[in-house]
């Protein structure tokens, strides 16, 4: 016989809440312990019952994300799953940042919600697939924009840029030191710093990066 999943449900819409509770409670391995209507109820229920899972809405009085955060702090063993109509990327990110273990849209079917509850109980994290795809695409787009907008050479000091210019011309550390009236040891120190700032492995890669940016 499977483990009994002890669950609580918090939503300020009684009809929807009771419908979800009825669907879940009909399963032999799920027990609905308590219901509530706001963030205060959510924390109280979590503390009193220490359920395996608490399902809650974002837009309920007191704020669902605030409730998730409070529950995660006070009862870290309780897995919070957001059940909401909000498809906002900010809400998704804030919910998981607050400690949620799942983010489910209210259009989900009964059998699918039951499957999600069981998967979260077994240690998985869940997010509605179309939201996950959107977040992934947005994340990649942001990364591409940031990469295109950031020039690593801008991080170099004036002296480092000067040294890199000589490296790009094929000069050795010894010759650069003579050109700039510095010790070879000092040039080596600058080169180590330059390689780290540019996220490259050697002076050849650094020179190629400098040449590429000079052409652009």
Keywords:
216 residues; alpha/beta; Rossmann fold; Arc Repressor Mutant, subunit A; six-stranded parallel beta sheet; 10 helices; rod-shaped
Oligomeric state of this protein: single chain
Helix fraction by DSSP (H/I, runs of at least 4): 55-70%
The first-level CATH class of the largest domain is given as: Alpha Beta
**CATH architecture assignment of the largest domain:** 3-Layer(aba) Sandwich
Residue fraction in strands: 5-15%
Class from helix and strand fractions:
alpha/beta
Mean pLDDT equals 86
DSSP, total strands: 6
Shape: rod-shaped
Spell the H/E element sequence. Answer: EHEHEHEHEHEHHHHH
Whole-number tally of structural domains = 2
Question: How far is the first residue's CA from the last residue's CA?
Answer: 67 Å
Main sheet overview:
6 strands, parallel
Number of helices: 10
Uncertain parts: none
CATH superfamily of the largest domain: Response regulator
By CATH, the topology of the largest domain is Rossmann fold
Cross-sheet strand order for the largest sheet: 2-1-3-4-5-6
What's the gyration radius in Å? 28 Å
Would you summarize the structure shown here?
With 216 residues, the protein is an alpha/beta fold. The chain is 57% helix and 13% strand. Helix 3 links the parallel strand 3 (53-56) and strand 4.
